[in-house]
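Sequence in, structure out.
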Amino acid sequence: MRPTDIAISNYRSIRRLSIPIHPLSVFVGENGVGKSNLYKSLSLLRDAATGQITRTIADEGGLNSVCWSGIRKRGEDGRLRLSATFDGMRYSIELGFPSPLQAAFSGEPMIKAETIETTRGKRTVKLMERINSLISVRGESGAWNAHKDAVLPSETALAAFGKQCPEIDLIRNAMLGWRFYHDFRTDPASPIRKPCLAIATPSLSADGIDLAATLATLYVIREDANDLQDAIQDAFPGAELRAWEENGRCEFDLQLPDMPRPFRAHELSDGTLKYICLLAVFMGYRLPPFIALNEPETSLHPSLLAPLARLIAKASRRADIWIVTHSEQLMDALRSESSVPLRRVIKSKGATAIEGLTIGGEYRDDEADEDDEDDDS
C-alpha cells in the first residue's frame, strides 16, 4: 500500500495543508518558509505506527513547541491533526493537551482521537474509531465492538491494537515501511566509516549504520552491482566501488582513477561518503515503498547534483520519493531529468504554503492537464 495523499493541521508553521503524493514530489524553498516541517510532519505521522508519536513530541519540547505557532481564531481547539490515505483507506490522528480530569503529566501530549475510514461507493464508512481511551472496531457483520480503556492516552491504537482489526494492521505495516533520511554522520567516529555486521540488508537504515551491509548485499547476495557501478561512474568517472564480506563483517572501498590504491570508508571525504550513502538509499536490493529526504544535497559538491538528480528520477520508478531542498541547482537538475512539476514552498500570511496547491489538496497544473485531456478527447 502506497500513500496517495497526506493532510497536516496545526503543526509548527503549517496551518492546514492537504498534499497529494506523486511518484516524485520535490519541494524547494528558502530558509525559514517551513519546508522542513513538511518532512518532519511525515516523520511524526510514521511515529504513530511505531507507537512513539507522543514521545517524539515530548522530545521536541512538547505540544507548545510543535503545535501551530501562529495566531488562532477564537474558539479553535488548536489540536495537532495528521492523516494519510492508502488505496481508499484513510488513517487520522488528533493530539492535544490533557483535560483537567485526565490522569497525566502536566503538558503531556495526549492522543485524543484516531480513525480509520474507507470509501464504499459514495459512502465513507468508519472501520475504527478511538476517542480518548475508548476504541470501537467495526466487525465483519458491521456491528461495533467497544473496548474501554484499551490503550493509554500516550499510546496509539495503530500500534497497540492491530490484532483486533486487520485494517489497522494493514495501515500500520504500510507506514512502518516508510524511510526518512535527514543527514548522515560523517565524522571520524561515525559508524558509517566502520565495518558492520554481515546481515543481508535490503534497504539502508535511517542513520546509515548498515551502509557496508547494504552495498555488500548487492555484490554478494544479488551478485549483480552493474547498475551501482554505472551510478558510481556517473558521479566519479573512472572510479570503482567494491563491497564484500569477511569474517562476519561487511566492508567497502572506492578506487579513484588518479590514486594508487583504493580508499576504505574511514579515509573517504565527507561529501564522497555521503554520496555513497545516497547511492545505497536509491539503489538498495529492495526499495521502501515511500522514501523522504530532507536536503540531500548538503555537503555535496555541485558537480554531484546532476548525477544525484538522475539517481532520484530513476528510483522514483520503484518507490514514491518525497524531497525537501533549498538547492535551486538540484531543482533545475531534477527538472531536466523528470517531467514531474517541482513545488515551491512559500510563506503566506505567516503560514507555510505550496504554490499552486488548492485547499482541496490538488495542484492547479494537474487540473489544467486534465482539462487539456478533455479538450483532446
